[in-house]
């Protein structure tokens, strides 16, 4: 089943008297149970793609069909420092005025399952960066999205923490049977986490190539150790450096 159909989408921004064409006829699909990465340089329009999918902004041309409930996870964990972990995890329920026992129980179950229950009464600044990202993911899952939009979710973490959090997020997404569209500028992150990568050019941004990864049940860390990893890395690196 197609969850997202991004069809011939162009997007220009108008500032003062200037027009910047950011996206130039981009098309791709995300299917159910897939983790897809969009890989491109800074400023090429990756966050713009997610904002279009979320209908926060409108395309200049083309159409975007979304066929699922979306969740969003950002670069920064965006936890509210004045709320406890429990109050952060359940904020979505407060906003949607869902006080049902089932929803609250579901939130608590997720907290138990992914071991953040014991930090319920802590405040975000008392937790490590990695743990905060886990809380941020659980907060998103409380609203039962089918597909998560991930905007460079690991880029603010130091290298070692990043490896741990990537394994963590990947295993939660797989266990909860979620689909995801992740944007990143990090080649290794794309290979470690996704089933397929869509490689973008510089602005005005087009799709350069799409590569499907042939991994089995490996975790991101296991993928990094596989010989296939470096051959995919080289293939992507060469694609990025080709002038056409
Ligand atoms: P990326 O996430 O790939 O780094 P963005 O999608 O944030 O890139 O931005 C792509 C380009 O579009 C940048 O040049 C940025 O300045 C411009 N841009 C993004 N959002 C807006 C906006 N709301 N108004 C004007 N220009 C914007
Ligand atoms: Mg961005």
Overview of the molecule:
This protein is of the alpha/beta class and 244 residues long. Helices cover 36% and strands 27% of the residues. The protein folds into two domains: 2-68 and 146-243, Rossmann fold (3-Layer(aba) Sandwich), CATH 3.40.50.300; 77-144, no CATH class. The chain is globular. Bound molecules: adenosine-5'-diphosphate and magnesium ion. Adenosine-5'-diphosphate (ADP) binds next to strand 1 and helix 1.
Relevant terms:
244 residues, six-stranded mixed β-sheet, binds magnesium ion, three-stranded antiparallel β-sheet, Rossmann fold, globular
Poorly predicted spans = none
- Per the CATH scheme, the topology name of the largest domain is Rossmann fold
Task: Look at the structure and give the mean pLDDT.
Answer: 94
Instruction: Please give the alpha-carbon distance between the first and last residues.
Output: 32 Å
Radius of gyration: 18 Å
> Bound compounds, please?
adenosine-5'-diphosphate, magnesium ion
Question: What is the string of SSEs from the N terminus onward?
Answer: EEEHEEHHHHEHEHEEHH
Number of helices in the DSSP assignment: 9
Task: Count the beta strands.
Answer: 9
Report the CATH superfamily of the largest domain. Answer: P-loop containing nucleotide triphosphate hydrolases
Q: Which sheet architecture does the biggest sheet show? A: 6 strands, mixed
Total domain units: 2
- Helical proportion? 25-40%
**What is the percentage of strand-forming residues?**
25-35%
Structural class: alpha/beta
């Amino acid at each position: 089943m197609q969850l997202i159909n991004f069809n011939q989408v162009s997007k220009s921004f108008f500032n003062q008297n200037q027009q910047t064409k950011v996206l130039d006829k981009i098309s791709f699909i995300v299917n159910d149970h897939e983790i897809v990465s969009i890989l491109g340089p800074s400023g090429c329009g990756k966050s713009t793609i997610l904002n279009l999918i979320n209908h926060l902004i409108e395309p200049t041309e083309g159409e975007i069909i979304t066929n699922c409930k979306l969740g969003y996870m950002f670069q920064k964990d965006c936890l509210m420092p004045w709320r406890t972990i429990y109050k952060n995890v359940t904020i979505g329920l407060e906003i949607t005025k869902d006080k049902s026992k089932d929803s609250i129980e579901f939130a608590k179950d997720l907290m138990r399952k992914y071991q953040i229950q014991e930090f319920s009464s802590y405040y975000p600044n008392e937790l490590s960066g990695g743990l905060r990202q886990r809380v941020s993911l659980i907060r998103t899952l409380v609203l039962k999205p089918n597909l998560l939009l991930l905007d460079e979710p690991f880029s603010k973490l130091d290298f070692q923490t990043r490896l741990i959090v990537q394994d963590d997020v990947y295993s939660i997404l797989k266990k909860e049977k979620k689909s995801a569209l992740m944007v990143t500028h990090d080649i290794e992150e794309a290979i470690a986490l996704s089933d397929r990568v869509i490689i973008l050019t510089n602005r005005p941004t087009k799709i350069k190539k799409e590569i499907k990864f042939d991994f089995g049940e490996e975790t991101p860390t296991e993928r990094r150790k596989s010989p296939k990893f470096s051959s995919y890395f080289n293939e992507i690196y060469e694609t990025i450096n080709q002038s056409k």
